[in-house]
Amino acid sequence: MKNVTPAINQNLKGSIIIPSDKSISHRALMFASLAEGKSVIRNCSKAKDPMSTLSIFRDLGVDIQNIDENTIIVNSTGKLKPLNDVLDCGNSGTTMRLMCGILAGQPFSSTLVGDESLSKRPMKRVIEPLSLMGAKISAINNCAPIQIDSAQLVGIEYSSSIASAQVKSCMLLAGLHAEGETVYKEPYLSRNHTELMLEYMNADIFSDGVITKIRPSILEPREISVVGDISSAAFFMAAASIVPNSDVVLKNVGLNPTRTGILEVLKKMGGNIEILDEQVVSGELVGDVRVKYSELKACTIEGEIIPKLIDELPVIAVLATQAEGTTIIKDAEDLRNKETDRISAIVNELKKVGADITATEDGFIINGKTSLNGGVEVDTYHDHRLAMSLYVAGLICKKEILIREFDWVDISFPEFETLMNSLM
Ligand code: S3P
Predict the structure, then answer these.
(1) What pTM does this model have?
(2) Which residue has a Cα nearest atom 11 of ligand 1?
């Protein structure tokens, strides 16, 4: 495993193309595998998480070919034929939870396994509602490995207590193979890539925001172009906002309104952000984002914006160390159930570099503006987003920091360091 030291006193200038969205890439691979015929996926993410999804569908008998750097062809009969009954989701929660929904209505048994971190993450949130649909699904202590046996599913109306796109997608995918209608309600709108892509592939689906209805459907193969990942772009938005004299253009950023909480927050904090050249690609809004250094002010982040920036909260904590005043983040208790407990992890590590940050049960409180001393070694907790958030903090420390086991970035963003270096 490699350790990394971010460069200090280096402003960021220039433009980069943001690599493919992880959430959309998972869905493109999954839904293309469920459709009968040939789908072409352009700009699919090659990061480790979506590659876990890809190898699972190969294990389920789907012909998936990497044609070139940019193109994946999925040739499917629309029916899954397992070559292997143990399916490895690696580190990917999205793979595991969405696969539960896909596998629950299949005429064969399978077992989903994951790495050490994924095997500790809560799966009751999908096991419980799928069981109400008649699924035969079980896991000791509601953690992976998850055993799924063949069952005939029936559509239900389900109101989720959490705003989770993974739970919503799991239920909608189960609804594709259930008798009658499946209705899913969520407390706040979470990312809606599943709804958009299923609609694009001709599923019988209707959504008015927090309520989505789906009926059994045959998916049609499509050409899907995956836009850039705003959750990856967020590290560059944060870095350019806090490193003095920075001015960057981030190209091809997905701007689906269920993901743009980071833009709303940066604007609220006084960030210098401009959106250029918006267009729609495969049903998703995309554009270029220009970000310049600016003096930031604190804000409160709570309620319905949380699902729109859930993955950005660790790097927002870094931003808040450079904002004048007290930033309060609330209603984000699910951060404790991510690749690691992201509340404890970011608080521990930012304290080490000199931030004034305190954990609460459902978020954190940061007093700024603080000049970060650095000069320490920090840990990634085997979490890609922790690693990149700490890298951004490292750019503004007075003394260099060393980030241990930085390779975890490969889970979502293997190009991170190369792109960062290209802006220096
Ligand atoms: C994801 C949904 C989010 C997010 C994760 C990816 C998805 O999880 O944190 O990185 O692709 O659906 P939850 O929906 O469980 O909050």
Answers:
(1) 0.98
(2) 23
